[in-house]
Amino acid sequence: MLMVSHNKTENKTQKTKNDTVLLVPLVICVGVVVLSIFVLLILNMQKYEVQELKMDITIGNYTGLNLDPDVIHFGTSKKGEERAITREVIVINNSTYNKKVAIEVVGNISKLVFLSDNYFILPPDSNRSVLISAKVRREAEYGTYTGILRALFK
């Protein structure tokens, strides 16, 4: 009878060893999967690059130009003039990978300004022209309208 009892203890010890042998590879596999997911998430979390340019237009009772290069100036335009004033901005990608570009206009000038293109993918070492047009409507109030042209790169 002592032998039978000894065999049961031996069987339990053997089973515990077998369970441990199976558990170690499982823990390693789960660890590798979790680490892989973490690395992929880090690589996909590219930061946005933001560039901003100030913009302005004045609505008055005359037409005037402002050619200063410090800001995108549309000058002074008569109320209700049916012509668009257009400026060009060149968007450049000097990197070695594609960049997604989103362009928006913020500020009270936004209701007067229109973009030729506001979302595109720019290949490496390339550039693209974006036209920015301002048109003063009859219902616009006299005064200076300001805002920012914001480009987001990812």
Can you offer a commentary on this structure?
This protein is an alpha+beta fold. The chain folds into two domains: 45 residues; 105 residues, Immunoglobulin-like (Sandwich). 28% of the residues lie in helices and 41% in strands. It contains one helix and eight strands, in the order H-E-E-E-E-E-E-E-E. The strands form two sheets. Strands 2-1-8-4-6 form a five-stranded mixed β-sheet, with no helix packed on it. A three-stranded antiparallel β-sheet has the order 3-7-5, with no helix packed on it. The N and C termini lie far apart (76 Å). The model has no long low-confidence stretch (mean pLDDT 82).
Characteristic key phrases:
five-stranded mixed beta sheet; single chain; 8 strands; 154 residues; Immunoglobulin-like; elongated; alpha+beta; 41% strand; three-stranded antiparallel beta sheet
Helices, strands, pairings?
Elements: H1 2-44, E1 49-60, E2 72-78, E3 85-93, E4 99-106, E5 113-115, E6 119-122, E7 126-134, E8 143-153
Q: What structural class is derived from the secondary structure elements?
A: alpha+beta
Q: Report the CATH C-level class of the largest domain.
A: Mainly Beta
Q: Note the main sheet.
A: 5 strands, mixed
Oligomeric nature of the chains: single chain
The gyration radius over C-alpha positions equals: 33 Å
Strand tally is 8
* Beta-strand content bin: 35-45%
The run of helices and strands is HEEEEEEEE
Query: How many independent structural domains?
Result: 2
Shape: elongated
Mean pLDDT: 82
Major β-sheet strand ordering: 2-1-8-4-6
Q: What is the helix tally?
A: 1
If classified by CATH, what would the architecture of the largest domain be? Sandwich
